[in-house]
TrEMBL record, chains A, B, C, D:
Keyword Lyase recorded: no
Protein name as annotated: Putative dehydrogenase
Matches recorded under Pfam families: GFO_IDH_MocA, GFO_IDH_MocA_C3
InterPro entries, per database record: Gfo/Idh/MocA-like_OxRdtase_N, GFO_IDH_MocA-like_dom, Myo_inos_IolG, NAD(P)-bd_dom_sf
UniProt GO MF annotations: nucleotide binding; oxidoreductase activity
Source organism per UniProt: Halobacteroides halobius (strain ATCC 35273 / DSM 5150 / MD-1)
Keywords linked to the UniProt accession: Oxidoreductase
Length: 338, 338, 338, 338
C-alpha cells in the first residue's frame, strides 16, 4: 500500500492530535515531517513517533520532495499564504478552519486552488465528518425531516477553558470568526442554502475583557436564508457543564437534535445530584472520531483522485459571513449578506 | 369555608377545562354561573355539574349579585371591555391571555384596574404557575444559574392540530400575538428585564394559507433586553412530535431546560423505533396542573386580600411587544421596542 | 350531587394526604370524620378543613350513621379487624396495603368481604392507579409489547429517609412485606400470572440494624411465574438519588420502562455536575396523582355500584407471597409458592 | 518502532473486524498471517490488506517463525487446544471468549499458560476495555459508589439477528455460555467477588427451537456473591429495539448505569413516534472502540513485558459458572458454585 506522506504544520493541542492521527489512525497516511516554532515539541514528536523530518521554517519543509501533502494547523492568519505556497510546491493541502481571517486572504487561496486543479484542497470543518452529523445529514437528504426550515446551533466552550481563551483573545478574530464559523458552515451545509440577512447581538456577561476587543463572551445571531429558512446561532465561552456543541434541524416532518447532551460516555450516574450524565470537556474528546474521519476523507480523495465536498469557496463564504456577523454585532444593525 | 362564587365566560375547550377546575379542583372556588353563545353547552355544563346560573349575555351575568368573580375565556378582542365591565360591577377578574388585541384596548383595562384597587385582577399566563417553571424561577432567583443572559423559548403546536388553527386563522391575531406572547411573557419574567430591540422572521414552510394574513406557519425572533440579555423565540404550527413548549435559560453558572422532551408520562418505550418517550399532544395535557394552580392563586389572592405578581401592565407590555414583533416580521426590519 | 361521606383512619404522613384528597381533590367525596390516636392531630385537621367529627376510638367512629365509607391508613396489623368491623357496620372500605400482616388475618377480611357483597371493598395499591402504570398496562393489554415475559421492579427509598425507617423497623414486617409487596402486586397485575417459585436474597450493606430483625437493608428476589414468565424484584433503603420506583416489562415485541428516572419535574439542569434531572424524594411527591385517582375509583365504584379490579384475594395473595419471600430470604432456600 | 506480528485465526464477522484492527488500528501491530477454513476469505483479506501469509491449517501457521502472536477467533471448542499449541510454539496468545466449552478444556489452557510464564496470554472479554466500563470501574475503585452490592446485567441480541442465532444453536453452548458469560465476567470484575450460589430460570417465549437444546430464548439468573452482594443477569435473543448491553452497579452511595440506552449515535429524533434515540444493532457497532482498546492492551503487554489483569483463571471461572447456571436452569434448582 502506497502511503500518503504528510507534513504537519503547527503542534498546538489540536495539531498534536492531528499529527497522532496521521501517524497511527489512518493507515494510508504517514507522518513524514512536522513543522512548528517550538524546537522541543518538534524533537518530542520526532522521537516519540519516529518522524524523519522536523522544521521550524514552513518554506523549508515544503521543499522536501518526499512529501505528498501538508496539514495546516497554524495561526489562522497564515493559512492562505501557506496554502498558496504548498499548492505551488505541488502538495495537496488540508487546512484547519477558518480558511483565512479576511476575505482578501481567502481570495488568494481561491486563486491558488484554481491554479492547481490536479491537487486536493480540503478544509477541516470537522463537524461534516462527525458520525452523528453525517447521519443527520443523510436523514435530511433522504427527506426524513420534510423541508428543513430552522437551524439552531450552539457552540459553547466550558468555562474551565476560559484562561486559554483569554490569553488568545487578541488573536482569535472574535467569537463569530473563531467559534460561530462552525455553525455558519453547518447551517449552510444542513439547510443547503446561503444566509442573506442577519442580526447579531451579545455581551460580556462574565468577562469584561472581551469588550476590549469589541467582542462578547457570549453572542448570538439570527439569520434569514435564501430559501426562507431561519438560522439561530449561539456561541459562548462560559458553559458550566462542558463543551456543548449542539445542533438542531427543525423540518416540516421531523426534528433532529445532535449532541443535545454532550455526554462523555455511556455511563449514567444516580447520586445525590439526581440522575446525570457527565459531559465532554473539550473538542478533542467530543470530535475524536471526526478528526480521524476527516483525515481519512482527505487521504481517500488523494488516492482516488477526487475532490472533497467542501470547497475553498465554502471557506471564503464562511469567513465572509463570520465577518458580516461581527460587523452586525459591533454596529448593532441588521445586515444584508453579499 | 367561604367559597368564591365564580362565573365562567366562554366554554370552548379551554373554557370547559377552567369551568371543571373551578367546580371540582380548587376547594375554595364554586362554579356559580357559566356564560357562552352556545345554549347547548350551557345546558350541558349546568346539568352535569349542577351549576345554578347560565347566560348567553355577559352583561346580564355580571349583574348576578351572588357572584364574586369572573374568569374570562372569551375571544381576545372582547377581554378588555369585559374586564372593565366586571370590575365596575364589583367583581374580581381572572382573564385569559392576551390582555387585549390592541394596545388601546389594554389601556382601557389598565384604567379599570387602577379605578378598582380593592379588586383582584389577574392574567392567566399559565406558565407562571406550572410547577416546573415555578421551580426554575426559584432556582434563578436563588442565583443557582448565576446571571441569566439567554432565554430560548419554543412554542410549537403539533401538526395534528393544524385544522383547528387554519379555521381560526382570521381571528388569531397571528403567531406572535397568539402563541409567541407566552414566550414574551416568560422571557420578561425569567430574565427580569424588558426587550428593547428585536428582529422577527419566518415563513410559510408547509401551509401557504398563513401568507394570506401576512403571517407564517413558523416564525422566530431575536430580542435584545435592557439588561443586555438575549432572547430567542420560536413559534410554530407543524411540530411532528407533539405540543412542544420548551424553555431554556442560560446563565453564567448554570443552564436550565424546561420541558425539552414534552413527555406524556413516565413510560419509556423500547421498540423497533429505538428508545423513546411519547409526547403530550395538547396544552390541556401539558399544563393540566398549571391551570389548577393559577386558579388557586387567583382564589387565594381574593381570600387573602393580596395582588398576584402578574399585573395588568404585564398584559399591556406582552401585547405591545407581540405587536412590535408582528410589525418587524411583516416589514422585515429591526425594531426598537417602546 | 350526592357526596360520599368518608371517615379517615390514621393521620400519619400518608393518612393526612389521603384526608386532604378526600376533603378537596375528589369532588364526590366528603371528609366527614377522622380517627387517630393523637388528639392534637385530630383537632388540627378538624379545624383546618372543617371536619365535623373526630374520634380516638375506631369502634365509636363506625357507629356514626352519617358515614358511607372508611379509608384505613392504620397500622397494617389492624387492617383486617377494622375491615371486618366496618363492613359489618355497613360501610364501604378502602384499605391501605398490605391487606394484613398474616395470611390468617387476610382470611378474616376475605370472609367479611364475602359476607357483604353489596359493599365496595378496595385495596390501595396505588401503582394500579398511577397514570404511567395505567398507560403501560393498557399497552400490554393491547398487545403492544407482544408476550410480556420479564418483570423487573425496583422499590427504593432514599437514604435521606433512613431514620424514619430505622425507628419503624420493629413494626414494618420487613422489606418484602413493607416494600416489595408493591412489586409483588404489580408483577402479578402486569404479567397476569401468579408466581410459583422464588428465591430471595439480600443483606445489610449499610445498616446492620436490619439484621436484628432477620432482615436486609437491600433485598432482591427472582420469581418464576405459572405462565413461565420471570420476575426480578429489588427493594432497598439506601438509594442515593431519591425515591426510585421503577418498573420494566420486557415482552417479545416491545419493552416498557416506567419511571426509570424518578424525575421531580420537567426541569433539566446543566451545571458542573453534568446534565441532570433532580429526583422525587418521597412517595407523596411521586404518586400524588395516583393517590387521587385511586380515591376517585373507590368513590366511583360506590356511586356506580360496581367493584374495583383489585380484590381482597389479591390482598391475601400479595401478603402470602411477601411472607414466602421473607421465608426464602431468612432460610436461604428456593421455595414453592402455594 | 518494532511491530508485533500477528496471525489471525478465524475470519467470521468478528474475526474480520479483529483482523482489520490488527492491520490498521493499532500502530504497533502488524497483520502477518490469517488462518481460516474458507480459502476465498483468506485470499480476499490477503489481497485487500496485503497480508503476506494465508493458511487453512492452524498447525502450519504457528510454525511460521515471523509470527510473534496469534489472535484466536475460532470455534470455542478449539480455543484451549489452540492456546496450548501456540504457547508451546512460543507465541503470545489473545483468545476470544469463552476460554473453553468445558472446565476440562480450560484446565489444559491453564497448564499451558503456567508452563510459559514468559508469554502473554489474554482473554478477549471486551467489556473490560470499553471506555464506559473502564470509566465505571474506575469510579467504583475510587469509592464513588460506596460499597457496590448489586450487579444487574442485560445482554440482549436484537430479534433482527435471530436467524443467525438459530442456525448456530447446536454449537453455541446455550445462552449462559454464549451470552451470559459476559455478565458473569463483568459481575465478578465490578463486584470484585465470586458468586457462591445461583438460581437460573427462563423459557422459550418466542422461539420453541431453543427447547430442543434444553435452552431458552430468554433466560435469567440470580446470584449471591461471597461478599454478600447480589447479581441479576438477563440474556435474551428477542430485543425489539437493538443490541442492548446494559449494566448497573448499585452501591451504598451511588449507582452507575452503563448503556441503559444503547444509542447508535448522538442524534435525537423528534417525530410522530415521540422523542427517540435509535439503537445500536450489533456488537461490532457498540464495542467498536473496545475491540481496538483490548488489542492495544494485548500489544502493550507484549511490548512492556507485563501481564493483563484478566487471567486464564478468570476464563476457567467464567466457563465454570456459566456451566453451573446452565445446570441450574436445566434442572431448576438452586445451586452452590464451587
Amino acid at each position: 500500500m502506497k502511503k500518503i506522506k504528510m507534513g504537519m504544520v503547527g503542534l498546538g493541542r489540536l495539531g498534536i492530535q492531528h499529527a497522532e492521527n496521521i501517524a497511527f489512525r489512518v493507515p494510508q497516511a504517514e507522518l513524514t515531517a512536522v513543522c512548528a516554532l517550538e524546537e522541543d515539541k518538534i524533537n518530542e514528536v520526532q522521537e516519540n513517533w519516529g518522524v524523519p523530518y522536523g522544521y521550524t521554517e514552513y518554506d523549508e519543509m515544503i521543499q522536501n520532495e518526499e512529501l505528498d501533502a501538508v496539514f495546516l494547523c497554524s495561526p489562522s492568519s497564515l493559512h492562505c499564504d501557506q496554502i498558496e505556497k504548498a499548492l505551488d510546491a505541488g502538495l495537496h493541502v488540508l487546512s484547519e478552519k477558518p480558511l483565512g481571517t479576511t476575505v482578501e486572504e481567502c481570495k488568494v487561496a481561491e486563486k491558488a486552488v484554481e491554479k492547481h486543479p490536479d491537487l486536493v484542497f480540503m478544509l477541516a470543518f470537522m463537524r461534516r465528518y462527525d458520525p452523528s452529523y453525517v447521519y443527520a445529514k443523510k436523514m435530511i437528504d433522504e427527506g426524513k425531516v420534510g423541508k428543513p426550515f430552522l437551524y439552531r446551533g450552539y457552540s459553547q466552550d466550558p468555562e474551565s477553558a476560559i484562561d486559554g481563551t483569554l490569553e488568545y483573545l487578541a488573536h482569535s478574530g472574535g467569537e463569530f470568526i473563531d467559534m460561530a464559523v462552525h455553525d455558519i458552515d453547518a447551517a449552510r451545509w444542513l439547510l443547503d442554502s446561503e444566509p442573506k440577512q442577519a442580526w447579531a447581538i451579545g455581551g460580556c456577561y462574565a468577562y469584561p475583557q472581551f469588550a476590549e476587543y469589541d467582542d462578547g463572551d457570549n453572542v448570538s445571531a439570527l439569520m434569514k436564508f435564501e430559501n426562507d429558512a431561519m438560522g439561530f446561532l449561539f456561541a459562548g465561552r462560559t458553559a458550566p457543564h462542558g463543551y456543548n456543541v449542539e445542533t438542531e434541524i427543525i423540518g416540516t416532518e421531523g426534528i433532529l437534535r445532535i449532541g443535545s447532551v454532550p455526554q462523555k460516555n455511556l455511563v449514567e450516574i444516580l447520586d445525590q445530584d439526581g440522575v446525570r450524565k457527565e459531559c465532554s470537556q473539550d473538542f478533542l474528546e467530543r470530535f475524536d472520531q471526526a478528526y480521524v474521519d476527516e483525515l481519512q476523507e482527505f487521504v481517500d480523495c488523494i488516492i482516488e483522485d477526487r475532490k472533497p465536498d467542501i470547497t475553498v469557496y465554502d471557506g471564503t463564504k464562511n469567513t465572509k459571513i463570520a465577518y458580516d456577523l461581527t460587523g452586525s454585532f459591533q454596529e448593532n444593525k441588521l445586515i444584508d449578506i453579499e
